[in-house]
Fold each of these.
Amino acid sequence: MIADKVEAAPVRAHVERLIELGMTKAEIARAAGVNRGRITLLLTGYPGNREVDYTETSGAERIMAVDCSTIELESPWKAQASCSTETAQIIATQYGAAEPLDLFYPPTELDPETAELYHLAAVALCDSCPVAAQCDDYAAARPETFGIWAGVDRQETT
Ligand code: SF4
């Protein structure tokens, strides 16, 4: 136990469960009032595959309080999406990522060449995704301002 921190493992397990139930990382972050990068860090750990052991208490409590059943899940199409976190991480590894990362929310410190490679890989996945139209409508309506949705980098559109 570290002051103002709690064990990260149960929080990570809760996030993974919420994702299984259909929430995106952005939705979880928004519902918990934490930075989206914090959700990514919990899931993928520090560079070099070093897992997060402890996480800040108040954010952890808010994440644990996120209940998928109390949030309007108006997007059953997500069950058919081609971009599960697992898929995105596997593809990133195939494209040469040294550690698991989410192609659709890539780290900001990537060199331009690698960033472009990952971007193209994500767009290719979107191109063959059966629910791209629903995804595009969903991202535009919220609007999403981070990540790649339906082949479009939403940061570039804001
Ligand atoms: S269009 Fe792309 S971002 Fe949207 S659900 Fe499909 S794979 Fe995911």
Amino acid sequence: MNSRLKLFQNELPTLALTSEQLKFYDKNGFLVIEGFISPEECDSLAQAAFDYAGDKIHNHLNFHREIQEFKDLILHPQLHDICDQLQNTRMIPIGSIFFFGKPNNPLENGSLAHQDNYAAKAPIGSYFVTAVSLDDADSENGALNVYPGSHKLGELPYKDTKNFEFDENGNMTKNYPIGSEVEIPEGLKCETLSYKKGALILMHTNTIHSADKNENTQGRWRKKIYMHFVKDGDPFWPGWNAKRQIMDRGPRRI
Ligand SMILES: O=C(O)CCC(=O)C(=O)O
């Protein structure tokens, strides 16, 4: 398969985070880096997603195993540089999930307030969440809500809930709001992020987050690819739907 993107280039210079970015992440449990990829690269990824999905406009797991552009993205050396610095070790990609974020789509219903490690069950602090937004996103089209500082609370008790239902042919028939819900501890504030097309969002696995269903009436989509990592050598639960698996990614550069 030929890639229309030229993302995976070993010769890309290393990307060092600033001390402000590191401090912000440490304090808040998330970080947004605008302009990580270009609008053209976003469009190329979006086109590849539409070409692959056809009329199946819903969440898709592991596009990076099916679509070269998404494989290039999850293997982007500068994405790894950033993950490695924030987690202070070599981070290994293990899975991804794509959201079309089509306005008023019955097969996309946002997500409940949750932490992400309920799914991967990796050692505490090992699992790591990254996402690239392929559209501008804000409260008008269901952007990500985060609870700054919640990553310092450890793993909270959660209500186990189903995310998806599939028919016998593997087609998604039902989508519940994603995530196993946690109770929001007192004192935490919810912040709805806004970011531009091409932004990279990094999130500690214990950061409580959610997203509203996209009910935009102006036809604004909110396409986004989440890519998940785990610390090199750590165990995790593959998951019957997600089927997480390690990928070969090259050496740590920074
Ligand atoms: O729709 C979103 O951006 C949030 C998705 C989410 O909460 C998740 O994948 O854990």
